[in-house]
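Dock 4'-deoxy-4'-aminopyridoxal-5'-phosphate; give full complex structure.
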Amino acid sequence: MLDAASLRRDFPILSTTVNGRPLVYLDNAATTQKPLAVLDASRRYYEETNSNIHRGAHFLARLATEGFEAARHTVATHLHAESPDEVIFTSGCTDGINLTAISLTRSGLIGPGDKVLISTLEHHSNIVPWQMLCEQTGASLLIIPCHEDGSLDQDAYAKLLEQQPKLVAFNWISNAFGTVNPVVDMTAKAKAAGALVLIDAAQAAPHLKMDVQAIGSDFLAFSGHKVYAPTGTGVLWGKRSVLEAIPPYRGGGEMIKEVTFEKTTYNDLPFKFEAGTPNIEGGITLAAALDYVNSVGLDAIREHETKLIQSAATGLSEIDGIRFYGPDDRAGALSFAIKGVHHYDLGTLLDQMGVAVRTGHHCCQPLMARFGITGTTRASFALYNTEEDVAALVSAVKKAAVMLG
Ligand code: PMP
């Protein structure tokens, strides 16, 4: 059992008031708020150990290097990676997917006539980098369709795999609908068809335990800021054999072994993919955020959020003309539309009542097109949300629906 009321004390921003009302923050799929443990780790880093890493021979450089590499260790343990060498610090999920797509483009592993398979549920950041790869390599994109309930069509997926795509990329949890995809099963099928597999875990990271060895994929990317860490942080995990087989995507300091004007040799993993001074404080605070999440417990977090989502769905279902998107066993987000009410107008009224939600296409325009809509209203949940937040959401949406109806 999770005690959200007391956990809220770890998040100073939650005591903000909006238009004289207490803030009800339900935009967690966009970004989460940061606990004191993370804010303190940031401050401690700059007050006590700030220095550039790896190169310096002095005291502070050693402390900062130890802190950054300890953070990599924490991430590796959190992901159950075989080695910290498989953990590459990035600026976010988008960065990790682009790194993979650009390195694969340069690798020569994907060429003219090859196929890349993604799903209808993808965020633009798991679509556009693959379109760019296709443009440059002559490969083409295939799309796994989804059912009316927002779950992926697994029969169609099995059929598409018969075309032997070189790469399959899909999200674990949809940011737009909260659909939870069966990643272990989908990955096993893709591997059996001979594909490389990338999991977009941006929305899974705050809600689910992640075990990259149990999943069996080749890559997994997520953003720190959706799991209580600062913006500008993230991780790309890659299987050692695959990371060793593809070239780096950026050149510079740190990623080299030896440079002459004639030839450069690249550094070992993970440094080969970390050109330039990394976000040192970002890596350290990301680890602090994962420690925080683990101290609360991901099973307890999931259970707590599931209860909130279900009670929000029950409360909102009393509204005439409401439609929910995504299957009933959704995680993280509850997406809906009300007949005759524009999501933008609804979001604006909710804001006036202190309720922060997201409206629009959620960076999933092809998914919106599939459902013939321009957007939805999305309430998304975190460990610090409470039944009071749900009650405030339901009452505000009911009021707004009457005003706009
Ligand atoms: N994939 C999914 C499923 C997401 O929800 C997001 C963020 N909304 C991203 C990728 C991109 O993450 P970022 O903008 O933090 O790089």
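Observed: The CA atoms of residues 17 and 295 lie 28 Å apart.
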